[in-house]
Amino acid sequence: QVRLQESGGGLVQTGDSLRLSCAFDGGLNGYATGWFRQAPGKEREEISAINWSGTSTFYTDSVRGRFTTSRDNAKRTVFLQMNSLKPEDTAVYYCAAAAGYGVGQRYDYWGQGTQVTVSS
Predict the structure, then answer these.
(1) What residues have CB less than 8 Å from 102, skipping those under 6 apart?
(2) Strand pairing of 57-59 and 77-82?
(3) Which end of the chain is more exposed for a tag (fewer CB within 10 A), N or C?
């Protein structure tokens, strides 16, 4: 069974930075990775994605310019660097893996999530 595991969440103040990590096992070599978040009472949204080679990335409007996703395939880890955090960034953050990369991509494997809380 393939696995992904997020880490790096926590409680920070407005304007602070956090870096999330998503460790994946070897069964997901070749997969694209997406970052999602779900705030209380809201639907889960895809906020970023990166293809396997790291040459293409996607960001939703609300995080573009503040968040950066990258990957180190040798370490089987994908990162989400989050800068200039705002209270509205408070959510559970998930990483997920997909066999392909593109608009409407289906993600087949999911991590358990990590909580990010930004205080005002």
Answers:
(1) none
(2) unpaired
(3) N
